[in-house]
Amino acid sequence: MNEFLPPDDPSRLSKPSVPPLTMTTEDGKPYTRSPEVTENIGESLCWTIAILLARYTSLLNEALVFNIRRFRGHDEHICGLLLQELTQRVTRIVKAVIRGRDPLAKADIAMQVEMEILELAIAPVPSRKSEVLEVAFTQAVRRRAINLRDQLKGTVQGNRGRYKPVEDLDEEEKKRRRPLEFAPDSRNSPEAALVAFQDERFRDQAYEIVMAKLEGEDERMPLMFRLVVVDGWTIWSANPDVPTVARHFGLTRGQTRYLFEKIDNIIAAVLDAYPGKKRAATGGQR
Q1: pLDDT over 50 (residue 61)
Q2: How far apart are alpha carbons 200 and 253 in whole angstroms?
Q3: Nearest residue to 138 via CA among 37, 28, 247
Q4: Torsion angle, CA of 142/146/149/151, rounded to 10 degrees?
Q5: Neighbouring C-beta atoms of residue 175, cutoff 10 Å
């Protein structure tokens, strides 16, 4: 049996190693997954089919892409379920990036980004563009959405329905999305704080600074921050089908809130260190 397909025996002791990526950056450095992604992939390699079908929605974005490639050509049903989950995540990321745009233009951008990402996810031959999805999935999706948004500025396609009275669909999208600024357990969320940085490059830098500081705190905090800010998980939900940070770490609602208050204080310190980068986009908080 292919060592990367689910084991028949869930008690199998030997854990298959996670295969490395094959591409390198322009300066020759090999593409590498984060430790969290590598660990998540390793866990999924030991899941039986039944466990996989019950847990695939909890996979990190990059681990989800790995498993799509793992089942491509082996099980159309499972691969189809994973692709459907991937599409939903891409849509959420794109809509978060281009919120406030005309609904028709937003739908066009989301559809095109989805097609590009799905093609890369199932590409039979690896490339830099395809393997980066296992390294920095959200950043790859955001970059495509931003590029398409900029290309549509000033075009007829990008402004269809601009002057037509429509419902405020953004409010409905806020209810459906799962980014941290709408999570119920955070007074001043890390995601809302990071949005204060209008400069894209600086916002990425701020994320790295926050992650570095979190590594010196509770060992769970870096992954908690990533799950919410990067992968769009909620902190807590009564719905057992919704991936949450509390459920992932086996914490109570109060325990999870306490840890995110500590995360929020660290983000506040990062923002205070760069007062010139603050913007009113956060509604004046901080």
Answers
A1: yes
A2: 32
A3: 37
A4: -130
A5: 7
